[in-house]
């Protein structure tokens, strides 16, 4: 089978803050910015990888989501437990230093994990966890 990942979805609660973080702090390209019904879906991705995108979406935009589910999603986003993505780089220390210098919220500095991965972690403005693994 020839299957690849095209898009993953991460929620945002402030489209301008999300756009600034993924474009200006992380350095991703903006591939789309679509508004509908007072909401925005922003598609970003790493330069040089046009086939892989992150869609930053308004949480619970589905009309079938209940008010209780919306409250739960908002609570989980505020705690940083709703969504996560893992990125990779060959220069973990350089990426860490650049993101920290640009004001990204540090969750974990670069460390060698007991399970054999060296990584660090940040949160985006919506509370989503971004783990960055070092390629070896």
How would you describe this structure to a colleague?
It contains three helices and eight strands; from the N terminus they run βαβββαβαβββ. The chain is of the alpha/beta class and 136 residues long. The strands form two sheets. Strands 1-4-3-2 form a four-stranded mixed sheet, with helices on one face. The radius of gyration is 16 Å and the shape is globular. The protein starts with 6 loop residues before the first strand and ends with a strand.
What is this entry, summarized?
The chain has 136 residues and is α/β, with parallel strands linked by helices. Helix content is 25%, strand content 38%. The longest helix has 13 residues, at 67-79.
What labels would you give this structure?
four-stranded mixed beta sheet; 8 strands; alpha/beta; globular; 136 residues
Structural class: alpha/beta
Number of strands: 8
Low-confidence parts, pLDDT < 50 over ≥5 residues?
none
Order of helices and strands: EHEEEHEHEEE
Total helical segments: 3
The biggest beta sheet reads: 4 strands, mixed
Mean pLDDT: 94
The radius of gyration over CA amounts to 16 Å
- The fraction of residues assigned to DSSP E strands is 35-45%
Q: Given the C-alpha coordinates, what overall shape results?
A: globular
What is the topology?
Elements (H helix, E strand, L loop, with lengths): L6 E5 L3 H11 L3 E8 L2 E7 L7 E5 L9 H13 L4 E6 L2 H10 L3 E8 L5 E6 L5 E6 L2
Parallel strand pairs: 1-4, 5-8
Antiparallel strand pairs: 2-3, 3-4, 6-7, 7-8
